[in-house]
C-alpha cells in the first residue's frame, strides 16, 4: 500500500518551488498554535461526560450531511446512509457503501477533511481506496474503544484551547457549568446563544417556544414585553455562563426597526396563528435589529449566517428531518438589508458584528466595503460550501485589497464532526500561508511582516473579534 497523500507535508501549499518554500516557513510559524474554535456544533455533554464515540459509520458517515448528500446524489437511497449505530451489521453495511463511494469525493473539501482525519487521527497509514471496507472499519473501530480516544483526551491532543457550542436559549447550560468547574479540564467550552426558533414566526415550534420562554424568563411580564424581557434575561444567563456570542441563522440578513405598537401587533397576530408571510419576514427583520440592540447592551458578539434555503427537498425532510444534505445556497443582498441595523449600531462602542455568506459574489462587492468602513463589522470566514481550499483562497483574494487582514474573524470550522476540527484548521492555516507566500514572492508584503500577519490571522483575530 502506498502512503496516503494526506501525509505529504506540502499538501495545499503552492506548486511553485520558490513560493512553496516561503509558505513552508509561514506555516511552521503557526502550525503548533492552539485551535480557537468560536463557532461550531459539538455537543457540550459529549465533553462533559467524556462519552465514547460510536462506531465508524455513526461517527463519520450518517451525521455528516457533506458526506451523505454526495453519495445520495449518486443514486443511493438516504435510508441506507442515515441509520448508523442501530446495530453492528447495519453500521458495517453503511461503511461499505461509503467506501464504495469514496471515489466520488476526489477534489471535494469533504474528501480532503476525511482523508486528513484518516491519516492524522485514525492512523490508517494508506489511502482509503486502497483498503478494503472491512479492514478500514476494523482499524477505526479499534481506535474508538481505546481510552486515549475519548473526547477529553482528543481535545488535548488536538490542541484545542477554546471550543464554542451552539445552544437553545432555554438550555440549562449544565454541561458548560460542569466543564468550567472541573479542575481536571484545562480547555474552555463556551455556549453560544442561538435564538432562531424563537425569532422566526415561520418555525413550526415558534408559538410553543415563545410560551415556554415567557413562562420561564419574563419576570412575570406578558405579551411582547414579556417576550423581549425574557430574551434579554436569557442572554444575560448565557453571558454569566461564559458565552461570548449570539448566532443567527436567517433566510436573509434583512433588518428593520418597527414602532413598538407595530411589533406588538404582529407578535399577537403570530400567537393567534394569523400572521401573513409578509408579517413573518417583517417581524424577523425587526428581531434581528433587536438582537443587535441587545448585543450593544450585553456585549455578545453578533454573528449572522444567511442565504440557505433550508430543507429544499420536502419528501426527504418529512422522512429524515433537517440537516440531511439538501440545504441549498441562494443569492444574498447585504448592502440594503443590513443598513437599518448599521445606521443605529454600526459605530456603537464595542459592538462586534460578524457577517457570513454562502454567496461568494458579495465578498468583494458588499462585505469587504462594509467591513472597510464600519468599526463594528467583521468578515466571517468562508462558510459551509465555501470552507474549501480554493474557496478560501478566493475569499482572501476578494477581500484583502479592500480590508487588509485585520477585519476578518479568523477561521470558523462550524462543524458537528469533532474529529474533523484539526483537519479543518490545518487546511485553513496552509491556505493562509499560501496566500501570504504569493504576496511575499510578488514583493507586495515583506516576509517579516507576513510572519506577523499569519499569527494575527490564525490566533489574534479570533481572540479579538470574539472577545476572548
Automatic annotation (TrEMBL):
<dbReference type="Pfam" id="PF02614">
    <property type="entry name" value="UxaC"/>
</dbReference>
<protein>
    <recommendedName>
        <fullName>Uronate isomerase</fullName>
        <ecNumber>5.3.1.12</ecNumber>
    </recommendedName>
</protein>
<dbReference type="GO" id="GO:0008880">
    <property type="term" value="F:glucuronate isomerase activity"/>
</dbReference>
<dbReference type="InterPro" id="IPR032466">
    <property type="entry name" value="Metal_Hydrolase"/>
</dbReference>
<keyword id="KW-0413">Isomerase</keyword>
<comment type="pathway">
    <text>Carbohydrate metabolism; pentose and glucuronate interconversion.</text>
</comment>
<dbReference type="InterPro" id="IPR003766">
    <property type="entry name" value="Uronate_isomerase"/>
</dbReference>
<comment type="similarity">
    <text>Belongs to the metallo-dependent hydrolases superfamily. Uronate isomerase family.</text>
</comment>
Amino acid at each position: 500500500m502506498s502512503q496516503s497523500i494526506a501525509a505529504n507535508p506540502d499538501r495545499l501549499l503552492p506548486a511553485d518551488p520558490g513560493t512553496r518554500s516561503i509558505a513552508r516557513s509561514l506555516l511552521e510559524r503557526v502550525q503548533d498554535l492552539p485551535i480557537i474554535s468560536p463557532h461550531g456544533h459539538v455537543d457540550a455533554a459529549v465533553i462533559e461526560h467524556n462519552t465514547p464515540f460510536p462506531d465508524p459509520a455513526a461517527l463519520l458517515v450518517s451525521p455528516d450531511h457533506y458526506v451523505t448528500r454526495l453519495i445520495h446524489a449518486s443514486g443511493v437511497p438516504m435510508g441506507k446512509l442515515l441509520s448508523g449505530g442501530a446495530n453492528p451489521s447495519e453500521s458495517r453495511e453503511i461503511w461499505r457503501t461509503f467506501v464504495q463511494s469514496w471515489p466520488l469525493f476526489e477534489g471535494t473539501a469533504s474528501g480532503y477533511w476525511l482523508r486528513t482525519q484518516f491519516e492524522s487521527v485514525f492512523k490508517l497509514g494508506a489511502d482509503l481506496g486502497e483498503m478494503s471496507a472491512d479492514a478500514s472499519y476494523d482499524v477505526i473501530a479499534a481506535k474508538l474503544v481505546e481510552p486515549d480516544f475519548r473526547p477529553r483526551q482528543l481535545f488535548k491532543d488536538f490542541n484545542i484551547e477554546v471550543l464554542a457550542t451552539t445552544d437553545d436559549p432555554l438550555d440549562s447550560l449544565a454541561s458548560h457549568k460542569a466543564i468550567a468547574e472541573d479542575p481536571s479540564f484545562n480547555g474552555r467550552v463556551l455556549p453560544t446563544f442561538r435564538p432562531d426558533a424563537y425569532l422566526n414566526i415561520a418555525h413550526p415550534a415558534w408559538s410553543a417556544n415563545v410560551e415556554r420562554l415567557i413562562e420561564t424568563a419574563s419576570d412575570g411580564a406578558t405579551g411582547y414585553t414579556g417576550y423581549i424581557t425574557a430574551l434579554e434575561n436569557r442572554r444575560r444567563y448565557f453571558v454569566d455562563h461564559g458565552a461570548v456570542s449570539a448566532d443567527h441563522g436567517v433566510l436573509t440578513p434583512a433588518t428593520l426597526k418597527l414602532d413598538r405598537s407595530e411589533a406588538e401587533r404582529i407578535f399577537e397576530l403570530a400567537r393567534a396563528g394569523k400572521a401573513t408571510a409578509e408579517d413573518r419576514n417583517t417581524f424577523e427583520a425587526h428581531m434581528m435589529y433587536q438582537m443587535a440592540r441587545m448585543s450593544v447592551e450585553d456585549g455578545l458578539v453578533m454573528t449572522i449566517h444567511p442565504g440557505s434555503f433550508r430543507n429544499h427537498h420536502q419528501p426527504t425532510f418529512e422522512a429524515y428531518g433537517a440537516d440531511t444534505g439538501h440545504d441549498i445556497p441562494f443569492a444574498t443582498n447585504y448592502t440594503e438589508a443590513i443598513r437599518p441595523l448599521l445606521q443605529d449600531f454600526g459605530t456603537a462602542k464595542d459592538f462586534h458584528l460578524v457577517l457570513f455568506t454562502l454567496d461568494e459574489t458579495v465578498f468583494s462587492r458588499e462585505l469587504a466595503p462594509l467591513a472597510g468602513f464600519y468599526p463594528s463589522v467583521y468578515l466571517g470566514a468562508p462558510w459551509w460550501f465555501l470552507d474549501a481550499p480554493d474557496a478560501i483562497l478566493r475569499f482572501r483574494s476578494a477581500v484583502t485589497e479592500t480590508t487588509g487582514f485585520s477585519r476578518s474573524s479568523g477561521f470558523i470550522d462550524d462543524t458537528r464532526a469533532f474529529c474533523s476540527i484539526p483537519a479543518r484548521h490545518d487546511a485553513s492555516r496552509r491556505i493562509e500561508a499560501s496566500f501570504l507566500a504569493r504576496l511575499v514572492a510578488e514583493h507586495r508584503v515583506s516576509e517579516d511582516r507576513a510572519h506577523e500577519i499569519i499569527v494575527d490571522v490564525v490566533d489574534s483575530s479570533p481572540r479579538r473579534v470574539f472577545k476572548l
